[in-house]
Amino acid sequence: MNALAAALTYLPAWAGVGGTEGVTGFPNIGTYLIFGVILVPVYVMVIAWFVGEPRDAKSGLLGVSYLVGIAAQMWIGMFILTLIIGVIFFGGLPAPIGSGGPP
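Above: the chain sequence. Below: its structure as tokens.
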């Protein structure tokens, strides 16, 4: 047991993964994949609310409001979770906000 504890002291809490550098996670290939490919059915649905038959601008705007609210809730929640994960596992806040973790 003592040998295991001694071996674990050499492993950092972040398991060799460096802190965040640069812009935290937004402009990369996953962002383009999600917004450019995965969300195409959502774009078609929103356009159909306003140009399809029967047209109902009030219901269309209500639907857009719901989509914006859900998206904002997810983004804000993930932003807070990113900050918490950065502090716990990387020793500091992510790069645009903090110094980017341990030196």
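DSSP finds four helices and no strands in the chain.
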